[in-house]
Design goal:
Helices cover about 35% and strands about 20% of the residues. It contains 13 helices and 18 strands.
Amino acid sequence: MLKVYSVSLGCPKNRVDTEHLLGSLAVPMKPAGQIGRADVVIINTCGFIQPAVEESVRTVLEAVEHVGRLKKRPLLVVAGCMVGRYGVAELAAEIPEVDLWLPNQRIGEWGALLAEKLGLPAPVCGRRLSTGPSYAWLKISDGCRHNCSFCTIPSIRGAHRSVPAAALVDEARALLDQGVREIALVAQDVTAWGEDLGEKHGLRALLERLLPLDGLRWLRLLYLYPAGLTPELLSFIAQAGRPLLPYFDIPMQHADPDILQRMGRPFARDPRRVVDRVHDLVPDAVLRTSLIVGFPGETEAQFERLHAFVREARFSHLGVFAYRAEEGTEAARMPDQVEDSVKEWRRDTLMETQAEISAAWLETFVGRRMDVLVDAPHPEWPGLHTGRAWFQAPEIDGMTYISGPGVSPGRMVEADIVESADYDLTALA
């Protein structure tokens, strides 16, 4: 029995890559609770922004130190975006203790490279879930077709490449056969799926094949580029109904047209039009967005325009990031870089506004009865579980704390919402 200790850093797409790598092992395996009990240690890194790189380096060095103290040394494998960003040669020279480097440019070979290193049979096609029984991510494409001036993803993950629909349907069916209730589609741009495959109706065609699958209770779409939210796609989502959730994760990044142009964002100059279009065509829509403050040249007036946009749009969920100049990007070479203290103040200001918006919105659910998908037992309070209502995406939004008869991981239960906070709900089944 091969004992594997794995860590997946960064986004859900990385998590899927890790799960596929673990599922490719053609021998019986089980998770090792700690490095000292493992035969193989796998760290899937993130390299999107500098803090993620620093976390990845720190995690690898801690593993190196731990492995170095063991009498029986496990194989140390480092994979993912940090490896793709800096290259195997540079990293191997800096950290020679790593036994196998897996850059994401060779992701299709990960299983074979690991099997060869371990002396195992050829890899199989499989996936080992790490998210528990309630939900799973389904990565529908890799890479990106856009060239935003602040982003490293195209240089790390390459051009946009869609996974064929038949493979995605098979993978989704296998996830549902394991008891998963919610599937969340993820990609750099979910709306771009199928363009490179010659799919006539793109994402809609894929959704039409996934929605009828037995056992699927919720289907969620994450990371929808504004330009891809056509009236036709929005009308389809509105008419499809469950299990397709009217949940829209749309990365606006800013509201000022000049900043958007400098960012190289591929959509209309006024994001309010996108928000209005979604609400007009999908009246029960819930919107999440992400914003960047302190982009090079952002003036106080441009920030105030963004702040006004947040107050007016009243997003259900919002993430705000202080801009960081990433080596190799166009934006890093732009003049008028904003001071860190200003960027952090602007981020905190938006999040204070959003906390008020979120608290007021969540309060409207108190006293209502709704379905809650139970994710896991609470780590500290016996009898209490964490779960989510349909408008709460796993791992990125707030959660619903739930207790009562029949509450257990993987179950969808009806519950009364009894309390709300800034970002979370409390429910009784």
